[in-house]
């Protein structure tokens, strides 16, 4: 009984962490792409005129920051030279 409870709790914790990131699983390429997307969204937010568009971009930026934090936690961190290659 204890073993079944431990397995169920482990599965629940794993699925919660995956869902919190929207199913994002960090890897080197994905983390470099997150950095590029943050740059793109930030630039777009600087030129956005509509309040609705700015609000949407802020939410997108927040989600991307969460993904970047996940990348850092897993040990994937893009440096500037990697961003320049792509």
From TrEMBL:
This protein's species is Alteromonas portus
Where is the signal peptide, in residue numbers?
1-20
**Protein name in the entry:** DUF1090 family protein
Name the domain of life. Answer: Bacteria
Per UniProt, which keywords does this protein have?
A: Signal
